[in-house]
Amino acid sequence: MSLPRAQRLGCGVDVVELARFRRALSRGGEAFRRRVFTKHEEAYARARRRTALLHLAGRFAAKEAVIKAMSQIEPTRVLAMNQVEVRNDRLGRPRIVLHDGRAKRIQVHVSLSHVNTVAVASAIAIRPRVASRRLR
Asked: Contact, 32 vs 25, CB < 8 A?
């Protein structure tokens, strides 16, 4: 498949082992959570008591995948983890909200999944190139 010349594409994937993620959460405490997750993401996980850790791990994996995808499009700009927010649409599908001003210029598609011990996410970022104006 070839992309239209006016687009740039980046892709990323990440896998999170639940046991390792649990240790990182306990070591980093609230400071870690604030650096990584938004208030909306924390509330989403709290509402799912039994599977909260899996949902946070899935969101962590999604953020990592998005950051990797974005770095292929704009290698000089670095996103912080809490600038990438994973939300769900009304059908429960995950979507990405960027909190750094790029939301209007870049589309990000994400897929995530988790089982008892692992969470995985993949992301595709698409940025249309702005057509250059020719002076006549």
From this structure: yes
Cα distances from 43 to residues 81, 98, 128, in angstroms, run 17, 18, 33
Q: How confident is the model over 73-114, as pLDDT tens digits? A: 988 888 999 999 999 999 999 999 999 876 678 899 999 999
Q: Which of 120, 121, 116 shows the shortest CA–CA distance to 19?
A: 116
**Which pairing describes strands 118-128 and 107-114: parallel, antiparallel, or unpaired?**
antiparallel
- Which domains can be identified in the chain, with CATH numbers? 7-128 (3.90.470.20)
Residues in the chain: 136
Residue 19 bridge partners (DSSP) = none
Give 54: exposed, middle or buried? Use CB within 10 Å, 0-12, 13-18, 19+. Answer: buried
